[in-house]
Amino acid sequence: MSIDDQVELICHVRRSWGMEEALLTEADKRVLDERIADMDANPGVGVPLAEFMAELRAAR
Question: Is the per-residue pLDDT at 20 higher than 80?
């Protein structure tokens, strides 16, 4: 399932539960915006989620 499909599914579930309001504060949103900007500016710094999860499982 693509990221866009996952986000759409989460939004659908939240709406079905009557949770249309965002649960993030303005400070939370600013932090996320800063992290997204950093990720966009430095795309080679992170690792793919699948790789991270594999390393996490191997460390157990």
Answer: no
> pTM for the full model?
0.47
Residue 49 identity: L
| Contact residues for 46 (Cβ-Cβ < 8 A; gap 6+) | 39
CA distance 8 to 38: 24
Instruction: Look at residue 19 in the predicted model and tell me its pLDDT.
Output: 74
Only one residue has tokens 């430095």, namely: 42
End-to-end distance of the chain based on CA atoms, in angstroms?
27
**Is it the case that residue 21 has pLDDT exceeding 80?**
no
Helix (H, G, I), strand (E, B) or coil at 21: coil
**Which two tokens mark 16?**
């079905």
**Whole-angstrom distance, CA of residue 28 vs CA of residue 36:** 12
